[in-house]
Write a structure and sequence with these properties.
This protein has 674 residues and is α+β, with helices and mostly antiparallel strands. It has helices spanning 19-42, 49-76, 80-101, 104-114, 124-139, 146-176, 192-204, 216-225, 229-240, 254-270, 276-281, 289-320, 328-343, 347-351, 356-371, 456-473, 495-501, 507-510, 525-534, 539-556, 568-579, 595-598, 608-626, 631-642, 650-658, 665-670, and strands at residues 179-181, 210-212, 374-378, 387-393, 399-408, 418-423, 426-428, 431-433, 436-443. It is built from 26 helices and nine strands. It is globular, with a radius of gyration of 25 Å.
């Protein structure tokens, strides 16, 4: 019990966890797990929820809780030692769960429970868990003959290694790149706070001048504001060719992509699916790849006229700036200039009104108003001095949920923003386990004596991730495997997160969370009105960009011959021929760093973002009808969506909340494309 990863009585001991703890902890947990499985499998008693299913829930929770700490630290404080421990044990974990998923003895017991008279006596969440398990055993290869079972297991083990390596290559190429610039004449247009950070970064490396990297707080402002076109192109080229043949061979993801696609295709066909996309959709709201493609194409046809108009306007404005051949590295820069000209404000101007403390207070105020809960800072060991801990309580001070917040970008931290589960709510023997979430972003840290300042896009990102956190923390489900986001169909899991984004466009919300960093003034109504007017600026282009990625993903995993001569890049170019209005250069290697589908959980599921936008816009329309900070609508959203977790199909939850099935009209209206 001296191993902090084997401490389950309370919150994780992040201040004590070291790489050398990982292997002993996982070996102990997996060894105990195998003994438990053998004992359950050989038990002659009639299987029931209490004597069988609950025991496997207990086992899964223990392993998942320990592993979530390892995976989280690997993502936010990566080191060579931790990475090695993570990869070594990822292989063991994959092997363990592959064996479990194919165990015919366990599968037979779940089927027995489902077919028993006692099944009807279980609560709806427990019934859903049993049904999910029967489905997942089929998808895990439990019905395969022995030789195919072995191959299916090998495939899963190889895929876990390949997807981890894919993400490592993206992280390593991102971390490795640095551009030092001493000529200040090449840096005009770049915001002063960005330059200050760049200067301090160069100084920390004992270099003169300014250091620019491919991490978002450095990369995005250069693409958006740098007047020097050559500088923009240099950084764009480095970013767009990460983990490709243009860099170190050992970091090239091209062969890894091919291997991943072939293995996924083989696994799906072993289970008698026509393609991996069909296998992936077996656990989602959508029924077939064809249905997904038709949804995306319908949305594309509605968005295309707006996107083409966006592009004509952008090309014309670029010419005014002396850019006659608009290139990918010019799009953000020209777009920002056009927006400033058209709406008379810049992201940098808006950013001065969003200090971190005010933004956090504003976010918590929204949550407190619509859900009737309270959010306050608390104390717990963390993995870095910039990470903090909070709790959510009821009006009578009853603990509902807790979360860690790690907001700033830094070296050895994975890019992007995400929510993950630290501890999942459940009740066993009348004892409640409180849910705990990780909320992670990559925003600019404070500079000098000034607080961290967030762009409005970053404010939206924060609300988005907090929506995921609420889904996890406000669940009222007491059974582990469908509590919070567990068991929620992947194409519905973005509903609460995208729903929360809507509040970032409400005056009664935004004005209370702003204070100019120098003057203390509130965001002026005039500036807010300009932001709203600009809200759907290039919405057509942005919609087609997401559809491009989504079509690439679903076709890559369905209508693409992974053994043929066509490359994924060639498929992407074909899709761009059909839907794109912005064409990147031929050397752009977007697939090589598309971590969502090659290292995350979005394979044949990237369309989920657009589908969940339909759900979230339609859900938010009830708040528009009843008052955007309506506690009544908030309670209904909590009760019918957040509280339910994965205990019932997502469509049932949506219909219970909205009174009907979703349609795309609200999304098109929100995007100014109705």
């Amino acid at each position: 019990m001296s191993n902090p990863l084997l401490h389950f009585a309370g919150l994780p001991n992040f201040n004590k966890i070291k790489p050398e703890h990982v292997s002993p902890a996982l070996d102990a947990l997996l060894g105990e797990g195998r003994k438990t499985i053998d004992a359950l499998a050989s038990n002659k008693d009639t299987p029931s929820w209490q004597n069988f299913a609950l025991k496997l829930e207990d086992l899964d929770e223990k392993i998942s809780r320990a592993w979530s700490q390892v995976g989280h630290m690997n993502a936010v404080v990566n080191s060579p030692e931790l990475r090695e421990a993570y990869n070594d044990n990822l292989a063991k974990l994959t092997d363990f769960y592959s064996d479990l998923a194919q165990d015919e003895r366990l599968y037979a017991k779940y089927r027995a429970i489902k077919n028993s008279d006692d099944f009807a006596k279980l609560n709806s969440a427990q019934q859903k868990i049993i049904n999910n398990e029967v489905r997942d055993f089929k998808l895990g290869g439990a019905e395969l003959p022995a030789n195919k079972k072995a191959r299916f297991k090998t495939i899963n083990e190889e895929l876990s290694k390949l997807t981890a390596k894919f993400e490592e290559n993206v992280l390593d190429t991102t971390n490795e790149y640095a551009l030092y610039e001493q000529d200040e004449t090449k840096l005009t247009g770049i915001p002063e706070d960005v330059l200050q950070v760049a200067k301090e970064a160069a100084k920390a490396d004992k270099n003169a001048g300014y250091k620019f990297t491919l991490h978002f707080p450095s990369y995005i402002p250069v693409l958006q504001y740098a007047d020097n076109r050559e500088l923009r192109e240099t950084l764009y080229r480095a970013y767009a060719t990460r983990a490709s043949e243009f860099g170190k061979p050992e970091f090239d993801n091209t062969p890894i992509i091919t291997q991943i696609l072939k293995l996924r295709d083989e696994a799906a066909k072993l289970l008698e699916f026509k393609c991996f996309a069909e296998f992936s959709l077996a656990t989602k709201m959508a029924d077939t790849p064809k249905q997904v493609i038709e949804f995306l194409q319908k949305l594309a046809s509605r968005a295309r006229p707006y996107a083409e108009q966006d592009m004509r306007e952008l090309v014309a404005y670029a010419k005014k700036l002396g850019i006659d051949d608009l290139q990918a590295w010019d799009v953000s820069y020209v777009s920002e200039k056009l927006r400033e000209d058209k709406y008379a404000f810049s992201d940098q101007e808006v950013k001065q009104y969003f200090p971190e403390a005010n933004v956090m207070a504003g976010l918590f105020k929204v949550v407190e108003t619509i859900f009737g809960v309270f959010v306050k800072k608390s104390n717990a060991p963390t993995w870095h001095k910039d990470a903090h801990f909070y709790e959510i309580t009821s009006p009578n001070d009853k603990l509902i949920g807790q979360f860690y917040l790690d907001l700033y970008a830094r070296k050895n931290k994975r890019g992007g923003a995400w929510m993950d589960e630290a501890i999942t709510r459940r009740v066993v023997a009348d004892k409640l386990t409180t849910p705990v979430a990780y909320l992670t972003c990559n925003f600019s840290a404070p500079v000098g004596s000034k607080p961290a300042l967030f762009t409005h896009d970053e404010v939206i990102t924060l609300f988005h991730e907090f929506g995921h956190g609420l889904h996890h923390m406000l669940t009222q489900v007491n059974d582990y495997s469908v509590s919070g986001i567990k068991g929620v169909e992947w194409d519905a899991v973005e509903l609460p997160s995208q729903f929360m984004e809507n509040f970032c466009w409400e005056w009664d919300v935004l004005r209370h969370m702003t204070e100019h960093v120098d003057t203390g003034a509130q965001l002026p109504r005039e500036l807010f009105d300009k932001m709203v007017a600009a809200k759907n600026f290039q919405a057509g282009m942005q919609t087609l960009r997401q559809i491009e990625f989504s079509l690439f993903d679903i076709k890559l995993h369905s209508a693409f011959d992974v053994f043929g001569k066509k490359t994924p890049l060639a498929l992407l170019e074909e899709i761009r021929d059909q839907v794109a209005v912005v064409r990147p250069p031929s050397w752009n290697r977007f697939p090589n760093n598309f971590s969502h589908i090659f290292a995350g959980g979005y394979a044949a599921g990237y369309y989920s973002y657009k589908w969940a936008e339909v759900l979230s816009a339609d859900a938010y329309s009830l708040f528009e009808e009843n008052g955007v900070l309506s506690p009544e609508a908030g309670q209904k959203f909590w009760h019918e969506i957040l509280a339910q977790g994965g205990s019932r199909p997502a469509m049932e939850s949506f219909v219970a909340f909205r009174g009907r099935e979703p349609n795309i009209d609200a999304l098109l209206r929100h995007n100014g494309m109705n």
